[in-house]
Amino acid sequence: MLVKFCGMTRQADVDAALRLGADCCGFIFHEGSPRALRPEAAARLASGTLKRVGVFVLQNADAILRTVARARLDWVQVHGAQTLACEAELARVIGPERVIRVLWPGRHASLAGLEAEMRSHAAYCGHFLLDAGTTGTGGSGRNLDWQALAALRAPRPWILAGGLDADRLSLAIVQSRPDGVDLNSGVEDAPGLKNHGKMAAAEAAIRSARAELRTLHRSLGGRNGAGPAHE
Ligand SMILES: O=C(O)c1ccccc1NCC(=O)[C@H](O)[C@H](O)COP(=O)(O)O
């Protein structure tokens, strides 16, 4: 289960994510966000073994690639209306495994529609991130319909986002069975200011949900959908 703490602005918060054994830290490069930071500020944040993910809403491929270099990014999260051509260019230059494509289940009347959209992006990304709402305004604190996502057949591993906090994480994971989780406003005191106690509680909730899923998987003889939901 990949764990990403997003909307990082402070060194102490990145350090906390590292201590908790997270996989990724996210930096928001979108001026409209209260969590926005400049590439130079992100570059100054040391992140050890964490994958450094840049979140982009309005930028084209050239601008994204400039920020990849300036902020020392490992992965890019395409979180807006970027075209397939933009994603193809990113995948060509940095490799598809370094691209996270954000999609919004709320735009689709059915899982089949979401799966079709996923298939059209699959060649250009290594992960999908599913967020609440219908637009590139992330950090909304709203939840997705986790039960509806349980039947999702995704062509790539997918990360669940949208208002996840320690209280809701276990249920969210057990119901939707994602390959990763993205935590943001649910572990904050205020936008961009993470609360280390909430981060630790979220990490504990993820561990307990994973244990519950393993037990479920074993009790079902490893035969049904308790395993990863991507193809
Ligand atoms: O977090 C923001 O302020 C933001 C603004 C514009 C685009 C994306 C943004 N966040 C990217 C994320 O991946 C968030 O973690 C995701 O939207 C979930 O946020 P939350 O609902 O607060 O858990």
UniProtKB/TrEMBL annotation:
It comes from the Bacteria. GO terms for biological process: L-tryptophan biosynthetic process. Coiled coil: none annotated. Residues 4-201 form the N-(5'phosphoribosyl) anthranilate isomerase (PRAI) domain. It catalyses: N-(5-phospho-beta-D-ribosyl)anthranilate = 1-(2-carboxyphenylamino)-1-deoxy-D-ribulose 5-phosphate. Pathway: Amino-acid biosynthesis; L-tryptophan biosynthesis; L-tryptophan from chorismate: step 3/5. The lineage of its organism: Bacteria, Pseudomonadati, Thermodesulfobacteriota, Desulfobulbia, Desulfobulbales. Belongs to the TrpF family. GO terms for molecular function: phosphoribosylanthranilate isomerase activity. Its EC number is 5.3.1.24. CDD domains: PRAI. InterPro entries: Aldolase_TIM, PRAI_dom, RibuloseP-bd_barrel, TrpF_fam. This is N-(5'-phosphoribosyl)anthranilate isomerase. It comes from Desulfobulbus oralis. HAMAP family: PRAI. Keywords: Amino-acid biosynthesis, Aromatic amino acid biosynthesis, Isomerase, Tryptophan biosynthesis. The keyword Isomerase applies.
